[in-house]
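User: My collaborator sent over this chain with a note saying "see what the structure looks like." That's all I know about it. Can you take a look?
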Amino acid sequence: MLSYTVLIDDKDNEILFDQIYNSYRQGMYQIAYSILHDVQLAEDMTAETFVRVAANMKKISTMTEQKRRDDIAIIIRNISIDEYRKRRKNPEVFFDNENFVIDQNNPEDSAIGKVRYMDLVTTIDQLPDIYRDALKLRFLYQLTAEETGKLLGISANNVNQRLLRAKSKLEKLLREEHYFDEKR
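Assistant: Without extra context I'll predict from the sequence alone. Here is the result:
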């Protein structure tokens, strides 16, 4: 582990930082790698996130564990997306895979499958945070339900329940935006 503790001035916060590092490092790396598709960049973004965490340990130490997990997942996601944008020099492109994992036997998923990928990502961004983050972590970043649950501080069953609700809300938004009209 790099010496992040130089940025931390409290022994209790150093211990908490070590726990955060050991608990979240692999999940953070997976999020960064799923966005950047580059081992070195994913490691760099994970390190950058830990620098930010270490620099803000006073604030982070007062958060609940779930809030801490959520914030760290959002930080790694955002800095990875920013890096991806810088490297691609195209602010419109967020992800380079064109597939969204969909169960064609599910009527909601089948309808969602007819929407263009970038339209889908844009519409997902309109969902409330708890649904948006679950969808992105699970499908766009391709984490397992267990990994998603760990990052969000909920069980895999709760992840699956959020995904069901998220897909329903997503389909409703897409219908409101007329994505299923024959003219499209």
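A starting point for your reply to your collaborator: The mean pLDDT is 78.
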